[in-house]
Amino acid sequence: MSSFTIDVKKIGEKVNAILNGQINEDADFSALKDAGGDVLVLNLKGVTHINSCGIRDWVEFQNKYLEYKEIIYQECPQVIIEQMNIVAGFIHPNGRIESFVAPYYDETNDEEIKILLTPEEIKDGKAPLKTNDAGEALEFDEIELQYFNFLKMKG
Amino acid sequence: MKADYLDHLQTPIMLINAKGELEYYNFICSHFFKLPPRKLKKLKGIGQLLKVSDFEILKHAQEALKLGAPIVSPELNLLLNEIAYTVVIKFIPLDQKVLVQILDYSIEKHLHEKYKQHILELKESHEQIVRSDKLTALGEMISGVSHEISSPLTIASDKLLSLAEHLHRKDEKSSRLDLEELTFQFKRIKQIVSNMQNLTRSSDEAVCVINIKTVIENALNFAQDLNLLSGITIELKGESYILGSALKLQQVFINLIKNSIDAFKEGAIKEKRISIHIESCTEQVVVNFMDNGPGVDESEKLFEMFYTTKKLGEGTGLGLPISQKIIESFHGSLSSVKKESGACLELNFQPLIKKVLL
Which of B68, B121, B265, B336 is the most exposed, having the fewest neighbouring CB atoms within 10 Å of its CB? Predict the structure, then answer.
């Protein structure tokens, strides 16, 4: 049984949907089907895992049922970014990414830190400089060329 | 060795030397092993990255080098960060080095096991429902049969008493009449029992040449024995032969007859009529089963499992789908045909002999 849920709230013509849990073969997206509105905001912060079945079903569902002028992807976790970099069509043709999680590493404190970035912060495919509390530069903990590839992909 | 072309591949793949030292790994490795690049860089050998019990990675890599040909491992269970994966590892020799590719079949295996279980559960449910349906049908038949047998038994019982009396009075003529009546009633009982036995015989009957008209007549006789056709005019025209199972086809027609009878009960039909026309040509044999009842649902749902317009407990909605399956097993078809009034079900069969038109 899927642990996936979608919490939908409509304010005017804007639909805010919070996705939580695992997107797999059991995930049910029907809560988004007749939500109405012109703009859909998908907050993916709570998505913990996605497999190839979930991706397939999600892409199919998006293309079939989500007719919005704009779909905004918020707080995309690393698991989603990894899939966006592999699977074409994950982002809806009318979609844009508002924010996403990027992994950094604090060498001084030996700590892995997840930082929320926006596409605008990525210049020439490079991760923006981030620092720890002591002002020391954090290391970007992925291969930039690979990790930011999704920003070049169209929906 | 420059191997950044491996980054275009979407499965984890590593390049190792003969000692098992990592020379290159593609970016998918980072995601698969859940290790950032800075940790992967620190690893010396593939043994530190890939640990599979009862399977020596380096040994197989060296074997592939020795053979000069790829080696594929059996399905292996790989534990990574407390998550179990089902993988197959391919070792591809390449200029004194080995490409180690991991093929992750975890999802396929998971789905396979999941749906295998679902299918078993569905089969069990289906069997239970069919059993329940059969028991219900059997219950109805037993009720009908016992009612029908009791009638001739009562008459025969009276005639026996009458025969005893006439024999005592040495009334030969009356005794003979009693005996004739007794014979007739016992023949009637025998026929009812015989029809019942036919119906409950195993359904694994061999396919053979059957006369459709005879099968329909048997089905009508069966219904007649249960006194179901009272007040209904039956018209049966035509004759043809097909390859099939007489018993199974008889079940189909009994079901269609029963559906018509149930339909008559719903509508206020004064002159009830069932017409069965058998027509054959070179290409097909067609049986049109018609009644002048209220008609049937023209939607696609008619042959769907469990679809019924009857009240709860009066129909399981399995009769028509099962009948359709039986006809399809004869390479035929069963469908509903639109009519101005009443119902018409069309059964199509392949003719026994196809004539070649010159």
Answer: B68
